[in-house]
């Protein structure tokens, strides 16, 4: 039995033993598959979001790259990320508090049940959970109220489309402090270059530094995927805080060398992003 997912020109199959959960929430179809090799796999509207085998790569890279770029972050906003993985990583930093805004309570409930350790994330006193629309939340947030914003979203479709709009990025810029930065899900420069470039262009009109960085996920079609970091002040390779980056306990993937290397761009991508990425 295989779980199949299609992205762009790639169709990928993951060997699974059985589907162990399925429901239709107000917002999306939620499934969990059991795999001998990958552990449990969370699937939203037909797209794999995480597997127990490799989720640490995605979550460590989304969380620690921006945190270890910022000089003294203390308040982080996570939009999406109801599976709890990104919040788990941010909360490894004892001096940071988190506001997490997830639109779908059922994603949280399913993640707590089928993915070990997620329940503990939501018990952390430094985590403040809001069930609601991230676009509405950020529109009503106070000016310069966050050091870092992390957008842990699904693809740019249906209810998540607003998280990829110029209006949303403008609101993010407004609620970030003068040295704030934001990291977002940036599609894949290999699978969906046009979508990747479009996100860069929108963010580049608002931030002085806008750079893609890569990570590898076996459970995602094409394996090579990207986040995009946009910053008002700090540069992710020149300003990395080594004392913070290399002293985080419990990590499996991220370190300061990985951060620097993740911003290295292949020649063909440099040509595509010329005049779009800002570094």
Describe the protein in words.
Helix content is 28%, strand content 31%. It starts with a strand and ends in a 6-residue tail after the last helix. The strands form 3 sheets. The chain has a 7-stranded mixed sheet, with helices on both faces. Strands 3-4-5-6 form a 4-stranded antiparallel sheet, covered by helices on one side. It has helices spanning 55-67, 85-90, 105-114, 118-121, 134-139, 166-175, 193-204, 242-245, 256-262, 267-273, and strands spanning 2-7, 10-15, 18-24, 29-35, 39-44, 47-51, 75-80, 97-102, 127-131, 146-152, 176-185, 209-216, 224-231. Strand 3 (18-24) and strand 4 form a beta hairpin. The mean pLDDT is 95. With 279 residues, it is of the alpha/beta class. The protein folds into 2 domains: 2-50, Roll (Spermidine Synthase, Chain: A, domain 2); 55-273, Rossmann fold (3-Layer(aba) Sandwich), CATH 3.40.50.
């Amino acid at each position: 039995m295989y779980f199949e997912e299609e992205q762009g020109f790639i169709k990928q199959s993951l060997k699974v033993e059985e589907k162990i959960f399925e429901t239709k929430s107000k917002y999306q179809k939620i499934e969990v598959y059991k795999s001998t090799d990958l552990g449990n796999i969370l699937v939203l509207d037909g797209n794999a979001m995480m597997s127990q085998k490799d989720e640490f790569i995605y979550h460590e890279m989304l969380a620690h790259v921006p945190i270890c770029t910022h000089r003294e972050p203390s308040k982080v906003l996570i939009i999406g990320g109801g599976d709890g993985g990104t919040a788990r990583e941010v909360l490894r930093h004892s001096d940071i508090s988190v506001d997490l805004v997830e639109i779908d309570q059922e994603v949280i409930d399913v993640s707590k049940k089928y993915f070990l350790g997620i329940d503990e994330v939501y018990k952390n006193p430094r985590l403040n959970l809001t069930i609601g629309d991230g676009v509405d939340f950020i529109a009503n947030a106070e000016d310069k109220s966050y050091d870092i914003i992390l957008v842990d979203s699904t693809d740019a479709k249906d209810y998540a489309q607003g998280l990829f709009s110029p209006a949303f990025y403008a609101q993010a810029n407004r609620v970030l402090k003068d040295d704030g930065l934001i990291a977002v899900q940036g599609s894949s420069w290999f699978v969906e270059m046009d979508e990747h470039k479009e996100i860069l262009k929108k963010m580049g009109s608002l931030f002085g530094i806008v750079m893609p960085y890569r990570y590898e996920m076996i459970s995602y079609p094409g394996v090579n995927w990207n986040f995009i970091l946009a910053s008002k002040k700090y540069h992710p390779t020149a300003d990395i805080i080594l004392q913070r980056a290399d002293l985080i306990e419990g990590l499996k993937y991220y370190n300061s060398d990985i951060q620097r290397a993740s911003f290295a761009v292949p020649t063909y991508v440099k040509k595509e992003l010329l005049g779009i990425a800002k570094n």
